[in-house]
């Protein structure tokens, strides 16, 4: 009998099996319009690969690294490996052309010096494209999908690798162009970006406002004020939502016991974790896992 991890791990092999796509090691590409919609989970999950997707039809609201994002037609979505995703609301007619691949599938050197690109993607995973950009990315998807679904050939992997490198070059060009045309960040915006970077890195270990304030060389009061003004929510709400999202993901995608999850999320006792989880979800961790 398969374990929960085997069944629910949001990896490339799992996605390929879940939505009935051909399994070429290291990459999965949709063909049917509704295959991606059918394969979405209804709980937070960590993405174990690089996603490049273009919304063709319909609408989706989801959280990427704890922040709400909207997918509508002409939206490019790029998600980095290790990101946390949580679908919130998905329309029945959602059509997303998606390419999901392991970075090991392509040359590691091709992305080894792209810190700025990764930083931009982490902050802005969804971009609205113009007509020309939309058509270019659809053509990339069509070309990659054609070779992905063709009969096996000796050069299939090589061709897909070259096509992915071309796609990534296009993505980087879009992001750098967007950055050059965008407005300069205010100090408050810069601090908010830094906070979410830190939250993404440390939410499993740290839940105190003072920790993040110290990391940013600010007072807790000042940081709290900035985050509330910029986002409309208190910093504690953001921290707790990140912890809850991680807890939900661990409960649904792993076989870790409640006690082990307590340790992963740095709670001193499982009873404290259970009370924390129930306060925000109205369910015990065990009830949520079995729901």
From TrEMBL:
InterPro entries: Homeodomain-like_sf, HTH-like, HTH_AraC
GO MF annotation terms: DNA-binding transcription factor activity; sequence-specific DNA binding
Keywords, sorted A to Z: DNA-binding, Transcription, Transcription regulation
Signal peptide: none
Protein name (database record): HTH araC/xylS-type domain-containing protein
Family matches, as Pfam families: HTH_18
Gene3D superfamilies for the chain: Homeodomain-like
Domain HTH araC/xylS-type positions: 193-291
TM stretches of this protein: none
PANTHER family xrefs: ARAC-FAMILY TRANSCRIPTIONAL REGULATOR (PTHR43280), TRANSCRIPTIONAL REGULATORY PROTEIN (PTHR43280:SF32)
Origin species: Chryseobacterium pennae
């Amino acid at each position: 009998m398969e374990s929960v991890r085997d069944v629910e791990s949001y990896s490339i092999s799992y996605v390929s099996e879940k939505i009935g796509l051909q399994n070429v090691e290291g990459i999965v590409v949709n063909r049917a319009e509704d295959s991606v919609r059918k394969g979405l989970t209804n709980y937070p999950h960590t993405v174990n690969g690089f996603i490049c997707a273009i919304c063709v039809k319909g609408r989706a609201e989801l959280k990427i690294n704890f922040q709400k994002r909207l997918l509508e037609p002409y939206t490019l979505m790029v998600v980095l490996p290790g990101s946390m995703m949580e679908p919130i609301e998905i329309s029945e007619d959602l059509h997303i052309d998606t390419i999901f691949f392991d970075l090991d599938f392509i040359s590691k050197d091709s992305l080894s010096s792209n810190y700025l690109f990764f930083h931009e993607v982490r902050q802005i995973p969804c971009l609205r494209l113009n007509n020309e950009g939309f058509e270019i990315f659809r053509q990339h998807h069509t070309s990659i999908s054609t070779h992905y679904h063709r009969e096996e050939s000796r050069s299939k992997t090589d061709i897909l690798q070259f096509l992915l490198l071309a796609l990534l070059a296009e993505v980087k060009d879009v992001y750098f162009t967007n950055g050059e045309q965008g407005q300069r960040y205010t100090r408050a915006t810069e601090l908010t970006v830094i906070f979410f970077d830190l939250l993404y890195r440390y939410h499993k270990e740290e839940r105190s406002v003072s920790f993040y304030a110290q990391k940013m060389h600010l007072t807790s009061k000042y940081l709290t004020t900035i985050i509330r003004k910029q986002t409309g929510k208190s910093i504690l709400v953001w921290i707790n939502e990140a912890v809850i999202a991680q807890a939900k993901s661990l409960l649904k995608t792993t076989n870790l016991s409640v006690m082990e999850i307590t340790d992963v999320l740095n709670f001193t006792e499982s009873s404290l974790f259970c009370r924390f989880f129930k306060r925000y979800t109205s369910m015990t961790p065990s009830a949520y896992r079995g729901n």
